[in-house]
Design a protein that fits this description.
The chain is built from 10 helices and no strands. By secondary structure, the chain is an all-alpha fold. The longest helix is centred in the C-terminal third of the chain and has 42 residues.
Length: 214
């Protein structure tokens, strides 16, 4: 098959793959296989996939650098939007099925339960990131767009903390997500430091030359 044709199918295929968890959840609901506590099952399922997509989105840039496959960057926005979609479904389950629009109880939860506070914070950070993910907003915001979208790391940290505080006892899965996030943050710091080091060396060399001339 022609490589250009294969490349044109990659994004639709990836989009369809991102819908598989939604399909799985819908199918399990249809056959009545959501466990003894369906609301809890839906909540945990959508929350886990929100984190998975968020971490996958953050992994795009390091993977692109490692593999040299620049086409990967085209999937980052889609993965981020799917992360927000699953996070929004996660919150909607809590809002509608768990509390049935009981706003006073929801507000009390957000203010007084740390794990709810952390999760709501992550969602509120992801909201403007999703709204400004269009090409038009990228052009309009310019450099400010990159500054705004660095908050995705804060959202990921808040999401992992939310999961960690939620499970209380068995922390293996949130610990795994935390480990992956730590690697991604470490990679970003290392890359930033690597970019600054040549610039610092160049400045020192320039100063040394200026001193020699004087």
């Amino acid at each position: 098959m022609n490589f250009a044709i294969m490349r044109s199918w990659l994004k639709p295929t990836a989009f369809a793959a991102c819908l598989i968890p939604f399909g799985q959840l819908a199918y399990n609901a249809y056959i009545g296989d959501l466990g003894v506590n369906p609301i809890d099952t839906i909540t945990r399922f959508t929350g886990s996939w929100a984190l998975i997509f968020l971490l996958t989105c953050l992994a795009v840039t390091p993977l692109r650098r490692i593999t040299g496959w620049n086409e990967l960057i085209k999937f980052r926005r889609m993965l981020g939007l799917f992360a927000f979609s699953y996070a929004l479904t996660h919150f909607a389950t809590y809002l509608v099925l768990d509390h049935f629009f009981n706003w006073p109880a929801i507000g009390k939860d957000i203010l007084k339960r740390p794990y709810v506070t952390a999760g709501f914070t992550a969602l509120m950070i992801m909201l403007p990131l999703s709204l400004t993910s269009t090409a038009a907003m990228i052009r309009r915001l310019g450099k400010r767009w990159q500054q705004l979208h660095r908050l995705v790391y804060v959202a990921a940290i808040a999401g992992v903390i939310h999961f960690y505080w939620l499970v209380k006892a068995d922390i293996r899965r949130p610990a795994q997500y935390g480990f992956v996030l730590a690697l991604l943050l470490g990679n970003r710091v290392a890359m930033k430091w690597a970019k600054r080091k040549p610039a610092a060396v160049a400045r020192k060399s320039a100063v040394a030359r200026a001193q020699e001339i004087s």
